[in-house]
Design a protein that fits this description.
Layout: E1 3-7, H1 24-35, E2 41-45, H2 53-63, E3 67-70, H3 77-90, E4 95-98, H4 101-105, H5 107-113, E5 119-121, H6 126-137, E6 151-155, E7 158-161, E8 187-188, E9 193-196, E10 201-202, H7 213-217, E11 221-222, H8 225-239, E12 241-245, H9 255-267, E13 275-280, H10 282-287, H11 292-297, E14 300-308, H12 312-317, H13 324-336, E15 340-347, H14 354-367, E16 371-376, H15 384-389, H16 415-436, H17 445-462, H18 469-472, H19 495-520, H20 530-533, H21 536-558
Parallel strand pairs: 1-2, 1-3, 3-4, 4-5, 9-12, 12-13, 13-14, 14-15, 15-16
Antiparallel strand pairs: 5-6, 6-7, 8-9, 10-11
Length: about 550
C-alpha cells in the first residue's frame, strides 16, 4: 500500500522569512505509519520546493498512491484543498485525507467547500492515520468508516463526524521518522544552519481567548526529557541540525521537566553542537529568574515572549495574566542571562489607533528587546474571541488569516493605514538596531546571531516578501492609497458550519441556564459543567477515555 503525504504550498511573508522550516507533522505521521508496517511512504514538500499544481499533478500521477494526506492550518486551507483536488484528477482511486487544526474544528466548512475530500482527521493524527490506513488496506473503507474515532466525512449530502478519539496518553511511544525530510533544505537564516522543530509536550493549561492550541491538544501531556534529548541527539548526529525551536506553546510550564531537559542536554555536551529557542510566557521568566543562566548554559539562546499588547486593556481582553510592567522586567532578566529576546505584539483590533500603535513602538524602544515583531490580530474562526467579535469580522478569506494581513478593520483607521503604521514601527526599530546595537553589542556568537537576524529581515524586505508587501503593493507611506489586500469577497461561512456553531452555542446556553437554576435553588457549585466546557465530540472523547481507563484499571486489578 502506497501513502503520499503533501505539505501544501502556502507563502505569507511571515515566519518563513527567518528560515525554511521542516514540516514536523510529516515526520510524526510517517513514524507512526512505518511502525505499523507502512513502508511505501513518500513525502512532497510543496511549500519548501515551491511546487505548483501542474508539477504536483505529475508527481502524484506517477506515484499513484492509495492514500494521500495533507495538513492544514487556517491560512493554508485553500492550498490544502487544492492538493486534494489535484489528487482527485491524477490519482482518483486514492483516498484523500486532510488533517490539522483548521480541518479539525472547521470540518463542516471544509467538506462543504471541498466535497472532493474523502475524510477529515480531527485532532492528533498519529493513531487515527494508522486506523485509516488499516481500513483501506483491509478493504473496510468506506463501509466501516463509522467505526473509526476522530474523523469526519460526507455521506451523500450529510456531513458526519464520529466521536472524538482519545488524546494520545503515551507521547514517549511516538517515534517520528525525521529521515523522511531532505534536511539540506531546512535552514535557519540567522545562523545559516539546519533547523528542527521537535516537540516536548502537547497542550496548554491556559485558555487565551485568541488561541486554539489548548482546544486542539486538549490534555496537557509532557514527554520524558531524556526521550526528547535522544531525539535531538539523533537530529544532530544523523541530520546535522545546528538549531532547534521547541514546538511547545509553553515548554517552561513544567519547570521540573524543563530543568531535567536542560540537565540532560548539558550531560551529553550538546550545547557545544546545537543551540535552541522557545516561545514562553512572561510569568515563567519572572518565576525562573534564578535559573536563566542555567538555561543559557544548556544552549537556550532565543526566547520569544508573548508580551502581546502595550495596553493593559488588550492584555485583559486576551485573558493574559500579566501586567505591562512585567514585560520590561522579563526582558531585562533575559538580557542579563545573555539570552536573545524577541517581543511579540498583537496589533489590529477594532480599538487600535495611531496612538496605541505608537505606544507599542515606544515600549519596544524602552524595553530594548533584541527583536520585535508586530503581528496582525488574526481571529481564528474556531476561537472564542472570533465569535465574540460577531459581525465585526468582515473578511472570511482564510488564506489571509496569517498574522501579516489586517483581517480586522480598526474603527479609527483603514487597513492600509494600519499596515503603514506597523511598517513604520518595524523601520524605526530595526534601523535603530542596525546602526547602534547589532554591530556593537557583544562579540562572537552574539554579534553573529544579531547580524544574521538583521540580514534575514533585509533580505525579505528587498525581495518584497516581508509581510507580503510586494503582493499587496505597499512601497512606503506614499503608496497607502494603492494598497490592495486582495481579499476574496466570495468566501463565506458554509451553512453547515453556521448551524454547527449555533448548535454548540445552544448547548452551552442550556447548560449555563441549568447551572444558574440549580444555584438559584441553593444547589450547584463554582465549577463549569462539562457541557459548558466541551463540544459534543469532546464530551464523547472524554467519556470514551474514562471508559478505557476504567477498563484498564479493571484489567490491572484482575491480574
Amino acid at each position: 500500500m502506497r501513502i503520499v503525504l503533501v505539505h501544501p504550498n502556502y507563502q505569507s511573508g511571515g515566519a518563513e522569512i527567518a528560515g525554511r522550516w521542516p514540516p514536523a507533522w510529516a515526520a510524526y505521521l510517517a513514524g507512526s505509519l512505518k511502525k505499523a508496517g507502512y513502508t511505501d511512504l513518500h513525502f512532497i514538500d510543496a511549500m519548501t520546493d515551491n511546487i505548483g499544481e501542474e508539477e504536483l499533478g505529475r508527481m502524484l500521477e506517477e506515484l499513484q498512491p492509495d492514500l494521500v494526506g495533507v495538513t492544514s492550518i487556517t491560512p493554508s486551507i485553500y492550498a490544502a484543498e487544492g492538493v486534494m483536488e489535484v489528487a482527485l484528477r491524477k490519482c482518483p482511486n486514492a483516498v484523500r485525507c486532510i488533517g490539522g487544526v483548521h480541518a479539525t474544528f472547521m470540518f463542516k466548512q471544509v467538506l462543504s467547500e471541498a466535497p472532493w475530500i474523502d475524510v477529515v482527521v480531527r485532532g492528533e493524527g498519529e493513531e487515527i492515520i494508522v486506523e485509516l490506513a488499516d481500513a483501506i488496506r483491509d478493504g473496510r473503507w468506506p463501509a466501516e468508516r463509522d467505526k473509526i474515532l476522530g474523523i469526519a466525512y460526507r455521506d451523500g449530502e450529510t456531513i458526519t463526524a464520529t466521536a472524538a478519539a482519545p488524546t494520545i496518553k503515551d507521547l514517549d511511544a511516538i517515534e517520528p521518522d525525521w529521515s523522511i525530510l531532505e534536511w539540506e533544505k531546512y535552514i535557519y537564516e540567522p545562523l545559516n544552519t539546519r533547523v528542527a522543530i521537535p516537540n516536548m509536550a502537547r497542550g496548554c493549561p491556559f485558555t487565551c481567548s485568541f488561541c486554539s492550541q489548548w482546544k486542539f491538544w486538549r490534555d496537557y501531556r509532557i514527554r520524558d526529557p531524556k526521550k526528547v534529548v535522544d531525539e535531538i541527539e539523533n537530529l544532530v548526529n544523523n541530520h546535522k541540525v545546528g538549531f532547534f525551536i521547541l514546538a511547545d506553546e509553553e515548554p517552561t510550564i513544567n519547570r521540573k521537566k524543563f530543568i531535567a531537559f536542560c540537565e540532560e542536554l548539558i550531560a551529553r555536551d550538546l550545547p557545544k553542537r546545537i543551540q535552541w529557542g522557545i516561545n514562553t510566557r512572561v510569568t515563567d521568566i519572572l518565576r525562573d529568574e534564578e535559573y536563566l543562566a542555567f538555561y543559557r548554559k544548556a544552549g537556550l539562546v532565543h526566547v520569544s515572549l508573548g508580551t502581546e499588547a502595550a495596553a493593559q486593556l488588550k492584555l485583559d481582553l486576551f485573558h493574559k495574566e500579566t501586567k505591562v510592567e512585567d514585560n520590561k522586567r522579563a526582558i531585562e532578566l533575559l538580557r542579563k542571562a545573555d539570552i536573545f529576546t524577541e517581543a511579540q505584539f498583537i496589533v489590529g483590533l477594532e480599538n487600535e489607533t495611531a496612538e496605541t500603535l505608537e505606544e507599542t513602538y515606544q515600549m519596544a524602544k524602552d524595553w530594548d528587546p533584541d527583536l520585535a515583531n508586530w503581528s496582525m490580530y488574526t481571529p481564528w474562526p474556531f476561537s472564542s474571541l472570533f465569535h465574540e467579535l460577531g459581525d465585526k469580522v468582515e473578511v472570511f478569506d482564510f488564506s489571509k488569516y496569517n498574522f501579516v494581513t489586517p483581517i480586522m478593520k480598526p474603527a479609527a483607521m483603514d487597513r492600509a493605514e494600519l499596515l503603514d503604521r506597523v511598517m513604520s514601527n518595524y523601520r524605526r526599530f530595526y534601523i535603530r538596531k542596525a546602526l547602534f546595537h547589532y554591530p556593537w553589542r557583544g562579540i562572537g556568537y552574539r554579534r553573529r546571531y544579531l547580524l544574521g537576524c538583521l540580514k534575514a529581515f533585509l533580505k525579505a524586505g528587498f525581495q518584497r516578501k516581508f509581510y507580503d508587501l510586494g503582493r499587496v503593493n505597499y512601497w512606503g507611506p506614499q503608496s497607502k492609497k494603492g494598497v490592495d489586500f486582495q481579499f476574496d469577497q466570495t468566501r463565506g461561512i458554509a451553512q453547515a458550519q453556521e448551524e454547527d456553531w449555533e448548535a454548540a452555542a445552544d448547548r452551552a446556553a442550556r447548560a449555563r441556564a441549568k447551572r444558574m437554576d440549580a444555584m438559584a435553588c441553593g444547589g450547584g457549585d463554582e465549577q463549569l459543567s462539562d457541557e459548558e466546557l466541551y463540544t459534543a465530540e469532546e464530551l464523547a472523547a472524554r467519556r470514551a477515555a474514562k471508559a478505557k481507563d476504567a477498563a484498564d484499571q479493571g484489567s490491572v486489578a484482575a491480574e
